[in-house]
Amino acid sequence: MEIIAKLAKARTVETMVCNIAGVNRLAGDLCDLSQMVYLVLLEYDEGKIVELWEHGEIRFFIARIIMNQLHSTSSPFYRFIRKFGKMSEDIAALSDKLPDA
Fold it and tell me: Does the predicted TM-score (pTM) go above 0.85?
């Protein structure tokens, strides 16, 4: 728990999500992705997290989680966030299509 708290205080996951996704700031979906990554870390075996931290492999592990969440169509991020985002339309784009009143 302490390790994940340190990662959260340093905003490690958020920074890595921005770097991997190729954006300078977190958009709404990427904020959700960051939270999902923290959830995965919190649910993961504590002993393995400690081992990854001690061997300096935690950032690689986080990067793999992010990549899997971003690119897998069976990931929770895709099923709960991206899938519905693809089916929706931007309200600003819709307002441009409306006739003037």
Answer: no
